[in-house]
Amino acid sequence: MKKFTFRDLYQIRASHMASRLFITVLLVSLFLVGCTTGSGSNSGKEDKADDKIKTMEGNVLTPYKQYKAPDEYYNGATLTLERKADTPAWLTAQLETMKNRYLINTISLYDLENFDEAGSHTNTEHLFKELARLEMKAVVRIEAYDPVTFAFDAAEDVPDVMGRYTNLLEYISSDEARRASVAYFAVNMPVDDGKVQEHVGGVNSERSKTQQTAYATAILSALRTKAAGFGFPDAPFYLSVFYGWDNTYEVPSYENAGADGYFINNYSYLEGERVPEANENPDTIINSDRLAISMDKFKEQYGADKPCVIEFGIHTLQYNDGVKPSQTAGLVSDLDAKAIALKATADFYEANYPFVNGLMYFGYNLFKEEGNPPAVMDWALDYPARGEMIASERTLIGGAAVAEDVSSESGTAVLLADTGAGLDFRDCPAVRQVRLTYKADAPATLGFYSEGKLKQKKTLPAAADYTVQSVSLTVIEGYDLQITLEEGAECLISTVGLYEMLEAENASLSGMAAVKFDKEASMGAEVTGAIGSDNKLTFSETQGGDTLNILYKAFSPVTVALETAGEKFVVNLPKTEGWSLESAKIDMPADSDFTIYAEQGAVEFDAFFQTGVPSAPLDDADKTDAPADETAVPQGGDSGISRVVFYGGLILAALLLGLTVVTLIRYRKRINEAKQRDER
């Protein structure tokens, strides 16, 4: 089984050798030189993450054990709205995945009022049509306010909030189908905002309590009047109730406001400083005793006959590489503990509070910067695509369907039977290679799209049994990738791998070149035996560039031959103590093939990546399978190789380490900036 850590989802590949830190820095810097800053695979002796990846990809991170109709129970989650190159297609894929994979029947929507350009309802219209088609519901949040002035002042603040939401309220209330898709309107009571607390003399002041109750009555009355006037007289309005992260808020009862129901922010909280781990009792992981404090307060104020939805979220210490952030609400150690906490939370409310009529998980697709100092929290259930994945557990589009197939590794596969049927991957790494495991009775042509543009077509040969096909493909970090059937026979796809380097084991191998499994290699495998022109690795239609970076291991100096675009280049590689990286100045046109093998000495290849600006693609007529012209070998025999000398690298490492830190900060920032909402 290939070994790689959860950190692979976020960081650059680190070669495992005596100077591990130096090589990590070097890889990041070489990626910066290239046309895209990527985050590669990472592996080492301590890699023990197969189970963690299976937790995320195989068992699915969700609080819900079975799908229920929304009218029976809200299996909810917050969907962070994003504008894409094709937003309607993105919405359809997200909603179908939320329902079919995560068993979610209700979505909570922040900032819906700004989902479209001014004067347009294109995205919102498609959203509600898809909700109706899928028989899902929406929670429309009345959330925004002016933090500079807000003080629960009925006379001043109610008109301001109404001005922000009247247009949205009219749009939803005036259409029967849209009305039918609303679970409830969630009305915010921002008692946890420090600026608001300052305006009312503190959260527990008598002024705060008095104004809260008056505001709750006034805002619900204004909303009901508007909704009724627009055609929605029975619009359901739920009020937020929050007793504080530490249950110290003396929140008054809002019962006289006449809400149809309530929603409570009730997050697991650490018992002391210790972060709970997966091997502990589930009640301990979620600190159920603390959760019960808020629930008992609610029951005392509202009784046991008022509908109540629980909002909660879980994030991991693992995502921040073991460094505990200042935001510890909902914090657990890793993905295994998160998976347990999700189910344990649902079980806790089901077993103890029958008046709870739903859960609303915070952050289905959300990574959010919080705390002081700020750090990114992985609230999400749906993590971005990385590495090797079971196809049937990804987002399906265009009528693709999951098929049971005992001959596949997972027992399932994705059937692509119609043109346009395929798989959708969001927020990809800097992809350079896609690996498919498939079978088809006849040739099938797949299209690879990113941000709505066709990047490449690839015809898969007929294969009666599951066969591996690797495709060299460039996807910019953070972009989406869709793989769809373009023409030809239907096919079954069992697994899909997205790789940030050209993995040697995924090349087309000739002669004695063979795959060898090695837990210290980038994706758990390497290629040996590539000695002589009859024993080689070939990569097809690569992105090209002016530099080839080679991740390899050799116990004595080795001479490597590389053939591309009708030319042959020679690269001299020094011996290594472990996995090492060398870069060679070789001009490879865009979409070009290249073949590599050892001419003298023995070498083990792990992976390759191209950087720099490639020359124009070769015309098909210029591509040739003829032997390379030996006269094309550059003089000097080392192809202008640019070696990084380890024994003098201390100064260089210090300089490059600074670049690495800046790069990783920027990378984390890009993840956070890709999300649309910065408030719960």
Can you walk through the features of this model?
The structure is a single chain. This protein has 12 helices and 34 strands. By secondary structure, the chain is α/β, with parallel strands linked by helices. The strands form 8 sheets. It has an 8-stranded parallel beta barrel with strand order 1-2-3-4-5-6-7-10, surrounded by 4 helices.
End-to-end distance, in Å?
Answer: 39 Å
**What structural category arises from helix and sheet content?**
alpha/beta
- The outline comes out as elongated
What fraction, in percent, of the residue positions are helical?
10-25%
Mean pLDDT score: 83
**Unreliable parts:** 1-58, 620-680
Discrete helix count:
12
How do the strands line up in the largest sheet? Answer: 1-2-3-4-5-6-7-10
Number of strands: 34
The biggest beta sheet is recorded as: 8 strands, parallel, barrel
Compute the gyration radius: what is it?
28 Å
Note the beta-strand portion.
25-35%
